[in-house]
Amino acid sequence: MPMFADALQWLVMPISGAADHAVSASVSWHGRTMSVAWGGLVPIAILVARFFKVTRRQRWPQELDNKFWWHVHRGLNYSAVALACVGAYLVWGAEAYAGSVRALHGWLGWSIVDLGVAQALGGQLRGSKGGPTDPRRDAQDNSIDLRGDHYDMTARRVWFERVHKAAGYTALTLSAITVLLGMWVADAPRWMWLGLSIWWSAFVYTFVWLQRHGRCLDTYQAIWGPELTHPGNALPVVGVGIQRFPPCHASEITQEKP
């Protein structure tokens, strides 16, 4: 028991080794909201969007356009941005801390909040969908054709995907750094550092495992399948490490397990 008590005492001590850890309620809740938003919700949102466009029980490519990832990705990211705004408000004008690390933490923090808001609003620039499930329609709601920014992979859609993906991974990287800087400024207890290390290690392991097992399927094929009739299948994928099955005729399609 003495050994357990000593270990517990060591864990609750600040990282600097100070005798106690005292922060204001607003700073404490700022850290909690930001950690949940950027250290929890955003990483999960990215994992789901990258690796779960096709779920395990889905009979792809017979079953297409599974919107599970879409709803989870949007819901988590919107929640993260909302929490981040609350977290920023909690320390608005706070002057309890000073120094270069504090200044860098603040600058990065505001940059990430701005980037998160831009990502949420920028989603409206993705263009039209098109394709068999969302054709263009006239004023009488009659189907005209299958044209759409996503289905045709127009320049607008390609650039949207490039910017959206790059901004998302940039926000993820900067958020991890910013949370660590915030913990250093607040002299967070050692158990927080340990817990955060375990969490990020688990995230990286999961990301690598899913990537190596071919779970990163091209969004276009996840929605419309690998048939040659879909124009986007003849164009290069947008992104790194994305799996795409060779385009084929409908008669050649068999059930795959991406």
UniProtKB/TrEMBL annotation:
Its main location: membrane. The keyword Zinc-finger does not apply. It is a multi-pass membrane protein. Its cofactor is heme b. It is found in: Membrane. GO terms for molecular function: heme binding; metal ion binding; transferase activity; transmembrane monodehydroascorbate reductase activity. SMART domains: B561. Keywords: Electron transport, Heme, Iron, Membrane, Metal-binding, Transferase, Transmembrane, Transmembrane helix, Transport. Gene3D superfamilies: 1.20.120.1770. Residues 1-220 form the Cytochrome b561 domain. The chain crosses the membrane at residues 35-54, 166-185, 191-210. One of its GO terms (cellular component) is membrane. This is Putative N-acetyltransferase YedL. It comes from Bordetella holmesii CDC-H585-BH.
